[in-house]
Design goal:
single chain; 301 residues; alpha/beta; Rossmann fold; twelve-stranded mixed β-sheet; globular
Length: 301
Protein backbone atom coordinates (compact mmCIF):
# COMPACT_ATOMS: atom_id res chain seq x y z
CA UNK A 1 0.00 0.00 0.00
CA UNK A 2 1.17 3.57 -0.55
CA UNK A 3 2.38 6.15 1.92
CA UNK A 4 0.07 9.15 1.97
CA UNK A 5 2.19 12.32 2.11
CA UNK A 6 1.70 16.07 1.62
CA UNK A 7 1.47 17.16 -2.01
CA UNK A 8 4.75 18.31 -3.60
CA UNK A 9 6.98 16.79 -0.90
CA UNK A 10 10.44 16.38 -2.56
CA UNK A 11 10.65 12.73 -1.51
CA UNK A 12 7.77 11.87 -3.86
CA UNK A 13 9.81 12.21 -7.04
CA UNK A 14 12.82 10.39 -5.57
CA UNK A 15 10.72 7.42 -4.48
CA UNK A 16 8.77 7.29 -7.75
CA UNK A 17 12.07 6.78 -9.59
CA UNK A 18 12.59 3.73 -7.36
CA UNK A 19 9.12 2.41 -8.31
CA UNK A 20 7.87 3.05 -4.77
CA UNK A 21 4.18 3.94 -4.66
CA UNK A 22 3.69 7.23 -2.81
CA UNK A 23 0.25 8.81 -2.83
CA UNK A 24 -0.38 12.54 -2.61
CA UNK A 25 -2.79 13.53 0.14
CA UNK A 26 -5.31 15.00 -2.31
CA UNK A 27 -5.54 11.62 -4.09
CA UNK A 28 -5.79 9.67 -0.84
CA UNK A 29 -8.87 11.62 0.21
CA UNK A 30 -10.86 9.79 -2.49
CA UNK A 31 -10.08 6.35 -1.03
CA UNK A 32 -12.24 4.63 1.58
CA UNK A 33 -9.32 3.17 3.55
CA UNK A 34 -8.41 3.75 7.19
CA UNK A 35 -4.70 4.66 7.14
CA UNK A 36 -2.27 4.31 10.02
CA UNK A 37 -1.49 7.85 11.14
CA UNK A 38 2.24 8.23 11.74
CA UNK A 39 4.09 11.34 12.92
CA UNK A 40 7.73 11.83 11.94
CA UNK A 41 9.42 14.20 14.39
CA UNK A 42 12.41 15.05 12.22
CA UNK A 43 15.26 16.68 14.14
CA UNK A 44 18.01 15.63 11.74
CA UNK A 45 19.77 18.54 9.99
CA UNK A 46 19.38 16.88 6.56
CA UNK A 47 15.60 16.88 6.72
CA UNK A 48 14.75 16.11 3.10
CA UNK A 49 17.16 13.17 3.02
CA UNK A 50 15.73 11.83 6.27
CA UNK A 51 12.15 12.24 5.05
CA UNK A 52 13.00 10.15 2.00
CA UNK A 53 14.79 7.46 4.01
CA UNK A 54 11.91 6.99 6.44
CA UNK A 55 9.27 7.07 3.70
CA UNK A 56 11.15 4.42 1.76
CA UNK A 57 10.95 2.07 4.75
CA UNK A 58 7.35 2.83 5.64
CA UNK A 59 6.31 2.11 2.05
CA UNK A 60 7.33 -1.56 2.39
CA UNK A 61 4.35 -2.32 4.62
CA UNK A 62 0.99 -3.52 3.21
CA UNK A 63 -0.65 -0.89 5.44
CA UNK A 64 -1.58 2.53 4.11
CA UNK A 65 0.34 5.17 6.03
CA UNK A 66 -0.70 8.78 6.49
CA UNK A 67 2.45 10.72 7.38
CA UNK A 68 2.61 13.96 9.36
CA UNK A 69 5.89 15.88 9.53
CA UNK A 70 6.65 17.56 12.85
CA UNK A 71 9.43 19.87 14.01
CA UNK A 72 10.11 21.59 17.35
CA UNK A 73 8.93 25.18 17.27
CA UNK A 74 11.71 25.96 19.78
CA UNK A 75 14.41 25.19 17.20
CA UNK A 76 15.21 26.90 13.90
CA UNK A 77 16.69 24.54 11.26
CA UNK A 78 19.95 25.71 9.69
CA UNK A 79 20.13 23.36 6.72
CA UNK A 80 16.55 23.31 5.43
CA UNK A 81 14.76 26.21 3.77
CA UNK A 82 12.05 28.09 5.64
CA UNK A 83 9.81 27.55 2.61
CA UNK A 84 10.12 23.76 2.93
CA UNK A 85 9.45 23.87 6.66
CA UNK A 86 6.38 26.08 6.32
CA UNK A 87 4.97 24.04 3.44
CA UNK A 88 5.34 20.54 4.91
CA UNK A 89 5.94 20.68 8.66
CA UNK A 90 3.61 21.27 11.57
CA UNK A 91 4.34 22.18 15.18
CA UNK A 92 3.28 20.16 18.20
CA UNK A 93 0.50 22.65 18.99
CA UNK A 94 -1.10 21.78 15.65
CA UNK A 95 -1.04 18.01 16.21
CA UNK A 96 -1.37 17.38 19.93
CA UNK A 97 -5.19 17.48 20.04
CA UNK A 98 -5.42 14.22 18.08
CA UNK A 99 -4.34 10.62 18.68
CA UNK A 100 -1.94 8.78 16.37
CA UNK A 101 -0.97 5.21 15.60
CA UNK A 102 2.78 5.77 15.55
CA UNK A 103 5.48 8.33 16.23
CA UNK A 104 9.04 8.20 14.88
CA UNK A 105 11.64 10.50 16.49
CA UNK A 106 14.90 10.81 14.56
CA UNK A 107 18.40 11.24 15.82
CA UNK A 108 20.15 14.61 16.04
CA UNK A 109 23.82 15.73 16.07
CA UNK A 110 23.69 17.01 19.66
CA UNK A 111 25.27 14.10 21.52
CA UNK A 112 28.09 16.17 23.01
CA UNK A 113 25.55 18.48 24.69
CA UNK A 114 23.87 17.53 27.99
CA UNK A 115 20.21 16.74 27.33
CA UNK A 116 19.02 19.69 29.42
CA UNK A 117 21.08 22.12 27.33
CA UNK A 118 19.57 21.14 23.97
CA UNK A 119 17.45 24.12 22.90
CA UNK A 120 14.32 22.06 22.27
CA UNK A 121 14.70 19.69 25.26
CA UNK A 122 11.68 20.96 27.18
CA UNK A 123 9.50 20.70 24.09
CA UNK A 124 10.83 17.22 23.32
CA UNK A 125 10.01 16.12 26.87
CA UNK A 126 6.48 17.41 26.44
CA UNK A 127 6.09 15.48 23.17
CA UNK A 128 7.51 12.28 24.69
CA UNK A 129 5.19 12.53 27.71
CA UNK A 130 2.22 13.21 25.43
CA UNK A 131 3.07 10.16 23.32
CA UNK A 132 2.50 7.79 26.25
CA UNK A 133 -1.26 8.39 26.12
CA UNK A 134 -1.81 9.61 22.58
CA UNK A 135 0.36 7.33 20.40
CA UNK A 136 0.11 3.56 20.11
CA UNK A 137 3.88 3.05 19.74
CA UNK A 138 6.90 5.36 19.46
CA UNK A 139 10.08 4.50 17.53
CA UNK A 140 13.16 6.37 18.84
CA UNK A 141 16.29 6.53 16.64
CA UNK A 142 19.91 7.01 17.82
CA UNK A 143 20.15 10.23 19.92
CA UNK A 144 16.37 10.22 20.35
CA UNK A 145 16.67 6.68 21.75
CA UNK A 146 19.22 7.89 24.28
CA UNK A 147 17.01 10.88 25.09
CA UNK A 148 13.95 8.68 25.61
CA UNK A 149 15.79 6.22 27.85
CA UNK A 150 17.16 9.11 29.90
CA UNK A 151 13.84 10.92 30.23
CA UNK A 152 11.65 7.93 31.05
CA UNK A 153 14.07 5.61 32.85
CA UNK A 154 16.97 7.78 34.05
CA UNK A 155 19.53 5.89 31.93
CA UNK A 156 22.61 8.04 31.34
CA UNK A 157 24.56 8.29 28.10
CA UNK A 158 28.34 7.82 28.21
CA UNK A 159 30.97 9.42 26.00
CA UNK A 160 32.91 7.01 23.80
CA UNK A 161 36.70 7.24 23.32
CA UNK A 162 36.04 7.85 19.62
CA UNK A 163 33.10 7.97 17.25
CA UNK A 164 31.30 4.65 16.77
CA UNK A 165 31.23 4.80 13.00
CA UNK A 166 30.54 2.10 10.47
CA UNK A 167 28.40 -0.97 9.82
CA UNK A 168 28.54 -3.58 12.56
CA UNK A 169 27.28 -7.16 13.07
CA UNK A 170 24.50 -7.63 15.63
CA UNK A 171 22.85 -10.59 17.30
CA UNK A 172 19.25 -11.14 18.34
CA UNK A 173 18.95 -11.98 22.03
CA UNK A 174 15.36 -13.25 21.88
CA UNK A 175 14.15 -14.62 18.56
CA UNK A 176 10.53 -14.83 19.76
CA UNK A 177 10.14 -11.07 19.92
CA UNK A 178 7.84 -9.93 17.05
CA UNK A 179 10.01 -6.87 16.36
CA UNK A 180 12.88 -9.06 15.11
CA UNK A 181 10.76 -11.75 13.44
CA UNK A 182 12.56 -12.92 10.30
CA UNK A 183 15.96 -11.48 11.29
CA UNK A 184 19.06 -13.54 10.57
CA UNK A 185 21.10 -14.81 13.54
CA UNK A 186 23.71 -12.19 12.64
CA UNK A 187 22.63 -9.02 10.87
CA UNK A 188 24.25 -5.67 10.09
CA UNK A 189 23.31 -2.08 10.87
CA UNK A 190 25.01 1.33 10.52
CA UNK A 191 26.09 3.32 13.57
CA UNK A 192 27.23 6.91 13.86
CA UNK A 193 27.44 8.26 17.41
CA UNK A 194 29.84 9.64 20.00
CA UNK A 195 27.95 8.41 23.07
CA UNK A 196 26.34 5.16 24.17
CA UNK A 197 24.00 3.60 26.69
CA UNK A 198 25.27 0.49 28.44
CA UNK A 199 23.86 -3.01 28.64
CA UNK A 200 24.17 -3.19 32.43
CA UNK A 201 22.05 -0.05 32.82
CA UNK A 202 19.32 -1.42 30.53
CA UNK A 203 19.17 -4.70 32.44
CA UNK A 204 18.51 -2.88 35.72
CA UNK A 205 15.17 -1.61 34.42
CA UNK A 206 12.47 -4.30 34.70
CA UNK A 207 10.14 -2.44 32.33
CA UNK A 208 12.67 -2.74 29.47
CA UNK A 209 13.82 -5.63 27.29
CA UNK A 210 17.22 -5.73 25.58
CA UNK A 211 16.42 -7.26 22.21
CA UNK A 212 19.62 -6.89 20.19
CA UNK A 213 23.22 -5.86 20.70
CA UNK A 214 26.61 -5.87 19.00
CA UNK A 215 29.89 -7.07 20.49
CA UNK A 216 31.57 -3.94 19.11
CA UNK A 217 28.82 -1.32 18.78
CA UNK A 218 27.01 -2.25 22.00
CA UNK A 219 23.29 -1.85 22.68
CA UNK A 220 21.19 -1.80 19.52
CA UNK A 221 17.47 -2.44 20.14
CA UNK A 222 15.66 -1.92 23.44
CA UNK A 223 11.88 -2.00 23.93
CA UNK A 224 9.48 -1.27 26.74
CA UNK A 225 7.53 -4.36 27.75
CA UNK A 226 4.23 -2.62 27.07
CA UNK A 227 5.28 -2.24 23.39
CA UNK A 228 4.74 1.51 23.47
CA UNK A 229 8.42 2.41 23.07
CA UNK A 230 11.08 1.05 20.71
CA UNK A 231 14.64 2.39 21.10
CA UNK A 232 17.07 1.78 18.20
CA UNK A 233 20.63 3.00 18.75
CA UNK A 234 21.84 2.77 15.16
CA UNK A 235 20.67 4.16 11.84
CA UNK A 236 18.99 1.32 9.97
CA UNK A 237 17.27 3.94 7.79
CA UNK A 238 20.52 5.19 6.25
CA UNK A 239 20.98 5.26 2.48
CA UNK A 240 24.00 3.59 0.83
CA UNK A 241 25.99 6.84 0.76
CA UNK A 242 24.95 8.43 4.05
CA UNK A 243 28.02 7.30 6.00
CA UNK A 244 30.29 8.48 3.18
CA UNK A 245 28.60 11.89 3.24
CA UNK A 246 29.06 12.06 7.02
CA UNK A 247 32.74 11.18 6.65
CA UNK A 248 33.20 13.89 4.02
CA UNK A 249 31.48 16.49 6.24
CA UNK A 250 33.58 15.53 9.26
CA UNK A 251 36.81 15.80 7.28
CA UNK A 252 35.77 19.18 5.87
CA UNK A 253 35.26 20.37 9.46
CA UNK A 254 38.77 19.22 10.34
CA UNK A 255 37.55 16.42 12.61
CA UNK A 256 39.77 13.40 13.16
CA UNK A 257 37.13 10.91 12.03
CA UNK A 258 38.26 7.43 11.06
CA UNK A 259 37.00 5.65 7.95
CA UNK A 260 33.71 3.91 8.83
CA UNK A 261 34.33 0.23 9.60
CA UNK A 262 33.00 -2.56 7.40
CA UNK A 263 31.53 -0.06 4.96
CA UNK A 264 33.81 0.50 1.98
CA UNK A 265 35.20 -2.50 0.11
CA UNK A 266 38.42 -3.43 1.98
CA UNK A 267 37.76 -0.40 4.25
CA UNK A 268 39.21 1.80 1.52
CA UNK A 269 37.24 5.07 1.03
CA UNK A 270 38.27 5.07 -2.63
CA UNK A 271 36.08 2.00 -3.11
CA UNK A 272 32.29 1.80 -3.19
CA UNK A 273 30.32 1.05 -0.04
CA UNK A 274 28.81 -2.40 0.46
CA UNK A 275 25.16 -2.20 1.53
CA UNK A 276 24.35 -5.18 3.76
CA UNK A 277 21.66 -3.74 6.05
CA UNK A 278 18.68 -3.25 3.68
CA UNK A 279 16.78 -6.45 4.50
CA UNK A 280 17.01 -6.09 8.28
CA UNK A 281 16.10 -2.41 8.04
CA UNK A 282 13.00 -3.18 6.02
CA UNK A 283 11.96 -5.97 8.41
CA UNK A 284 12.48 -3.75 11.45
CA UNK A 285 10.05 -1.10 10.22
CA UNK A 286 7.54 -3.60 8.81
CA UNK A 287 7.49 -5.55 12.09
CA UNK A 288 7.09 -2.37 14.11
CA UNK A 289 4.18 -1.20 11.98
CA UNK A 290 2.50 -4.60 11.96
CA UNK A 291 2.99 -5.90 15.52
CA UNK A 292 3.41 -2.70 17.56
CA UNK A 293 1.27 -0.18 15.70
CA UNK A 294 -1.43 -2.05 13.77
CA UNK A 295 -1.75 -5.23 15.85
CA UNK A 296 -1.37 -3.58 19.21
CA UNK A 297 -2.63 -6.70 21.01
CA UNK A 298 0.05 -9.01 19.62
CA UNK A 299 2.47 -11.24 21.55
CA UNK A 300 4.26 -9.83 24.57
CA UNK A 301 7.84 -8.68 24.25
Amino acid sequence: MPVNVPDKLPAIETLKKEDIFVMKRTDALHQDIHPQKIILLNIMPTKIATETQILRLLSNSPLQIELYLLHPKSHKPKNTSIKHMKMFYKTFDELKKNKYDGLIITGAPVESIPFEEVDYWEELKEIMDWSKKNVTSTFFICWAAQAGLYHFYGIEKHKLPKKMFGVFPHKVLNKNVPLVRGFDDIFFAPHSHYTEVRTKDIKKIKKLSLISESDEAGVYIVASKDKKQIFVMGHSEYDPLTLKEELDRDLEKGLNTSVPKNYFVKDNPKNKPVVNWRSHSSLLFINWLNYYVYQKNGNDI
